[in-house]
Design brief:
The complex is a heterodimer of chains A (132) and B (389). Chain A has 132 residues and is mainly beta. Chain A is built from two helices and ten strands. Chain A is globular. Classes of the chains: A mainly beta (132), B mainly alpha (389). The interface between A and B is medium-sized, with 22 and 22 residues.
Chain lengths: 132, 389
């Protein structure tokens, strides 16, 4: 049983998803069994009422990929409203994307939404950020 | 400039003296989270940041000329109205009227033009994306100053002292500029003056700085009622969500249940404001933006998004000196600050547009809570409304 557990853990550690997709200083969110989203803000700590960028990388089966389309937005669930600005996506390097036009105009919990299409399927991932 | 600096020091000392002379020991505790929220409302005054879209921004000669032009009634079509006719320096650059009066009666309340240096949008509906482009708008509006490029060109003819000064500051005689270039130059010179208008430090700023520096003796000098009001402001009343930062505004737009019907129709506020700004020939996407890196200075215009929920939204005003700028709201429909607080206390949610989200709710404040909020708001202005440059 112990052996089995060790093998399972090692398989997990050695899985392509765990090994191949690395992006230092970025946060990651698992999208589904195949995909992981990596993101980081610039500047690192967004401030109230200041524009900031979000850099994005998309990992599928352990390798970074170029999605067919990407959309990004943010909302405040507690207040049922979003931003007053529309985010645009631009390629910022090899398999790196830049979401421009984020401006969070209130302190509180913001929920980011990234929607991307990889292959035929559209995928949606949400993650929260507390703006103080 | 030295004289202005001396005036500023004198005003600050006078405010300090007045603040400590009336000091009372407040005994209301402040939590670390409250302290962080209070500190975020300063420091004041803000550092002057040049408007990179305006080549005259921060230049003393342009500021001096802009001041003369701000008071020049000759810029208006019939020679009777200056910018200062509505933006009266004796009334904190407002007119104290419910609805503004230009050449003809208008449908909105005159907002102050102080503390606009760091703003992103200008006008109740955010019809402009820079102070200089917003300074052009009333000149040409038929009901406001009813002027035209041709009239302004004649007024700034090099045969007049003002015209020669304009030519010297802008590097081009008015009669050699095409209509739009002339208007852009004039707007930029007027803006160079207006961005120098900053309200002085207040009792709140002294308290906020003392709190940040852990100077308990000085924090105790702030009135207890104002501390209670401030705690409501940043706490359960949630005022700080929109009235945030050193200017007490997030610079954006909100609908708060004020009617948007006017004597001549409907004022859709931000909804029409966005349409106007994106189609303006003087917006920051135009060639009149002096920023070589236009990408950065025009971000808000490029990314602004129009949606149905913008209908009936109006600009969140700064609360600095708010006790001295009655009446209130985009249509001047609320006469006193107490009534404004009562409006939030008794808010009728049925009057809020359906898509406005769930941020607003009636605060149901007690009379003493209303008094506390008013005590706090009164500390956001100086007694005499003196301005510093």
């Amino acid at each position: 049983m112990a052996k089995r557990l060790i093998v399972f853990v090692m398989l997990g550690l050695l899985s392509p998803l765990a090994i191949a997709c690395k992006w230092p200083e970025a946060e990651s969110v698992r999208v589904d069994s195949d995909h992981v989203l990596f993101y980081r803000f610039a500047p690192e700590q967004p401030a109230v009422g200041e524009f900031f960028l979000m850099n994005l990388k998309f990992c599928r089966d352990g390798k970074f990929v170029d999605p067919d389309s990407i959309r990004a937005d943010a909302t405040m669930p507690a207040h049922a409203h979003g931003m007053n600005y529309r985010v645009t996506i631009a390629q910022a390097g090899h398999q790196i994307y830049e979401a421009r036009g984020f401006l969070l105009h209130m302190t509180g919990l913001w929920r980011f939404e990234i929607v991307f299409k990889d292959g035929k399927k559209r995928r949606r991932v949400l993650f929260d950020y507390q703006l103080n | 400039m030295k004289f202005v600096a001396r005036q500023f020091v004198f005003a600050s000392c006078a405010t300090l003296f007045s603040f400590f002379a009336h000091a009372t020991d407040n005994s209301v505790s402040i939590s670390p989270a409250e302290k962080a929220a209070i500190v975020s409302l300063g420091p004041w005054p803000p550092k002057f940041i040049r408007d990179v879209s305006n080549r005259h921004s921060g230049k003393p000669h342009a500021q001096a000329l802009g001041k003369k032009l701000f008071f020049a009634s000759g810029l208006s079509g019939d020679g009777t109205r200056a910018c200062a006719s509505c933006h009266n320096p004796g009334l904190l650059f407002t007119d104290a009227r419910a609805l503004a009066l230009g050449v003809l009666p208008l449908t909105r309340h005159t907002p102050s033009v102080v503390n606009l240096g760091a703003a992103r949008w200008f006008g109740w509906g955010g019809e402009s994306d820079s102070l200089w482009s917003h300074s052009i708008r009333p000149l040409l509006a038929k009901n406001e100053m009813g002027s035209s490029a041709g009239h302004i060109r004649n007024f700034l003819s090099t045969q007049t002292a003002l015209g020669r000064e304009f030519s010297s500051v802008t590097g081009g005689a008015a009669n050699r500029l095409d209509d739009d270039s002339l208007l852009a130059e004039l707007g930029k010179v007027l803006a160079a003056y207006q961005e120098t208008l900053v309200t002085p430090r207040t009792a709140f700023d002294l308290f906020r700085d003392a709190l940040e520096n852990n100077n308990e003796a000085k924090t105790r000098a702030y009135p207890a009622a104002a501390v209670r009001g401030l705690k409501l402001f940043i706490g359960s009343a949630q005022c700080v969500l929109c009235h945030s930062g050193p200017s007490f505004t997030n610079g954006e737009f909100a609908e708060i249940g004020i009617p948007y019907f006017t004597h001549s129709g409907v004022d859709s506020g931000r909804y029409s404001g966005i349409k106007i700004v994106v189609n303006s020939r003087f917006n920051l996407l135009s060639p009149y933006n002096d920023d070589p890196n236009r990408d950065s200075s025009s971000r808000h215009t490029r990314h602004v998004s129009l949606s149905q929920r913008n209908w009936g939204e109006f600009k969140v005003p700064s609360l600095r000196s708010v006790a001295h700028t009655a009446p209130y709201m985009h249509n001047g429909s609320i006469a006193t600050l107490r009534e404004v607080v009562q409006h939030y206390s008794n808010m009728d949610l049925d009057r809020i547009h359906a898509d406005s989200g769930s941020l607003l709710r009636p605060l149901k404040l007690t009379k003493s809570q209303i008094d506390d909020l008013l005590a706090f708001l009164s500390t956001l202005g100086s007694d005499n409304g003196t301005l510093t440059h």
